[in-house]
Amino acid sequence: MLWAAGFLIVAGIFFFAVGVLGVLRFPDFYTRLHAAGKCDSLAAVLVIVGIALYNLADFSPSNLLVSFKILAIAAFVFIASPTATHAVTEAALIIGVEPWTKKDEPQ
Question: What pLDDT, on the 0 to 100 scale, is given for residue 101?
Answer without folding.
Answer: 81
